[in-house]
Amino acid sequence: MIAAKGYAAQNAQTPLAPFQFERREVKPHDVQFDILYCGVCHSDLHQIRDEWGGSIFPMVPGHEIVGRVTKVGAEVTKFKVGDLAGVGCMVDSCRECENCREGLEQYCLVGNSQTYNGREQDGVTPTYGGYSNLIVVHEDFALHVSEKLDLAAVAPLLCAGITTYSPLRHWKVGKGHKVAVLGLGGLGHMAVKFAVAFGAEVTMLSTSPSKEEDAKRLGAHKFVLTSDPARVKEVKGYFDFIIDTVSAPHDYNLYLSLLRTNGIHICVGAPPTPAEIMGFSLIGGRKSIAGSGIGGIPETQEMLDFCAEHNIVSDIELIPIKDIQNAYDRMLKGDVRYRFVIDMNTL
Ligand code: NAP
Ligand code: ZN
Ligand code: ZN
């Protein structure tokens, strides 16, 4: 086994603290890499606080991981020592079910192995995430990362990036569409960048007046403060799609009223409690509410290549790992601009 160190939550109540653990030895198809940067996703917070239930402790969070390869197994063909590599939300899946065969490993019918707060495909061995100094992963679940882009700002693409890219591609969002992005945080700011890059007219729906200028800088054509009923009224029945990135309970009925006939409200945000949705919110205008989970490995690589080609990265605040608790506190208040990324040299 390989000695590793990181930051872990020991239970749902106490703050993260330094933690020693072990990674597996590099097997023939594995790559080992030194983690240089790891993004901080709101899902990290949901899971260390056990807001979705079933959390596995001790938990080393982190699934927006980038670094440089230090060792490859004898059979590895996709990476060599010295390459940049990334890992997102999954480290394995069954590889055999119909979804895996289609490159939709995020919807593996057997259950994929999440990068942390999960178990390897043996169903026993716990997985530990990217708030740590190194990782060992099967080459099929490692992604290629461009040397051209700012590496720290690439890290959030591995979750916030793919989670917003995938639904926009699935629903073929582009020119001629009016898209609303709900919630300007880590996912929201990437949704704005991608929807603009795909040619849509983009409106930011936000609870934070202070984010208006940033939304425009990120490319949004309009900004609507959702606490201002007069502004909200102006966009009733206006959007083809809403990309909902909100992490806390909110009123879906209100946002459904902003969709046009046949409009689709796409949930990527995962609040910890169920929502009440009136049938009439969907019936009037034949509207749909849908969901989307991260993205498969082939699409994640496609997204990273698209970002390299179009010079798209995340807007980040780089933090030392000792400031992680403060980052969580700010994230909870919606004060994120627009992704915290941990400099793993500070571990
Ligand atoms: P984040 O950076 O904290 O951003 C969430 C944003 O939502 C906030 O900045 C805020 O934006 C808005 N918001 C927060 N509370 C709100 C409330 N009560 N009402 C309305 N708006 C509110 O979080 P994130 O990392 O982007 O993650 C967002 C959600 O997506 C989380 O639930 C996360 O677990 C989930 N997620 C899902 C997937 C997936 O595969 N589907 C992947 C990753 C993350 P404003 O200030 O603009 O209002
Ligand atoms: Zn995430
Ligand atoms: Zn599968």
Automatic annotation (TrEMBL):
Residues 13-342 form the Enoyl reductase (ER) domain. InterPro entries: ADH-like_C (IPR013149), ADH-like_N (IPR013154), ADH_Zn_CS (IPR002328), CAD-like (IPR047109), ER (IPR020843), GroES-like_sf (IPR011032), NAD(P)-bd_dom_sf (IPR036291). SMART domains: PKS_ER (SM00829). Keywords: Metal-binding, Oxidoreductase, Zinc. Pfam families: ADH_N (PF08240), ADH_zinc_N (PF00107). Its cofactor is Zn(2+). GO terms for molecular function: alcohol dehydrogenase (NADP+) activity; zinc ion binding. Belongs to the zinc-containing alcohol dehydrogenase family. PANTHER family: ALDEHYDE REDUCTASE. This is NAD(P)-dependent alcohol dehydrogenase. It comes from Larkinella humicola.
